[in-house]
Amino acid sequence: MSPALPDGEPVPPDGSLPAWVAAGGGASGPTASRGFGVYLHVPFCSVRCGYCDFNTYTASELGGGASQASYASTALREIDLAARVLRDAGLPERPVSTVFVGGGTPTLLPAGDLGRLLHGVRDAWGLAPDAEVTTEANPDSVTPESLAELAEAGFTRVSFGMQSAVPHVLATLERTHDPRRIPDVVRRARDAGLQVSLDLIYGTPGESLDDWRASLDAALATGVDHVSAYALVVEAGTKMAAQVRRGEVALPSEDDQATKYELADELLTAAGLTWYEVSNWARTDDDRCRHNLAYWRGDDWWGIGPGAHSYVAAPSAGPAHATTGPATDPTTVTDDTGASVQDPRVGVRWWNVKHPRRYAALLEAGTSPAAGRELLTRDEGRLEQAMLGVRLHEGLDLAVLSPAGRRAVAGLVANGLLDGRAAIAGRAVLTLRGRLLADTVVREITDE
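RESULT FIELD:
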């Protein structure tokens, strides 16, 4: 069961954006210089893994009106709608800097369909000359021919869900691929001209430290240039959560997960990969996932597909969605006293209906598939920037924080969670211990 959508205000049937999003955002304004990415959600999986709470469906869960065969055509309708909404809002035209196809298992769709979606993005907005175009894939959902077809269509990068190299760990996760195929698929993707990332999960019930070391060693043996390593989080409503509740599997301790994170950082660093976000390591700056960096840094993006989220900042938000001073949006509103004041909102986020059948029906009727939206204030934008920015290797500008947040920095330095020299230079940068306790750091610096 995927998590419920957040509450929010209604979205106009045509999907139009608030007028203040475009106010002052001409061709030379801040919106024009802010990156624009596109996320394409493919909601299909061959099986549902017991730990997964993503908005994904197997064929038996869908029924009519939401077939894999028709999905590309349906998503192309939302791309057309998105292009019209942004154009009608008067926002400056920007080529797409990053495209990320996620899921689900996007490569359950034919490579030709994924190519059609990418061509639709190109036709709607154009692609930047150095655009990064990624698709997620399961190791058993690609062939040399499909990888070559993806590269020919314009994809530049593939992210394989390796998760583990140990059969009993994969079995617990209900992953179906043969871990012995990993070196082959990495080599074939590279032969096709694609950059490769491997995703790993640590903290699976029954996984030993030696098991985790074996998975890291296997990933590094491929010579891969990007690795994401995530601690398993068992979400309510999943099959694994029920197994834990019944006592059928036992979750590892926080100390066990911390030890596995430290081992990952040690081995990945020794192999020449550097952390650039708490859960991500890359060999060079060019190997980093620019699409995810755009999320963490507050760029604009449109999410295509059922359950997908989108975000567009107002011009006053500048290069990121939070500001450190008074809002500069020229749009005015009336406050409680009747005085005209500058509109404090810095961006709008919205999300689509979750079920593919409902998503397809709305687009078929010419209606926006958006289920709701929220209008972010300057304070909310600042909070989000703090939560996301502090997770990056470059750290967070302390000027973003409230006075209370800045006062908390000294204590976090004293406790070894933030780098002292960086703090003196005006940035909050996590130490290794701070990365292990990143949520604690976020709470401290955002506590009002």
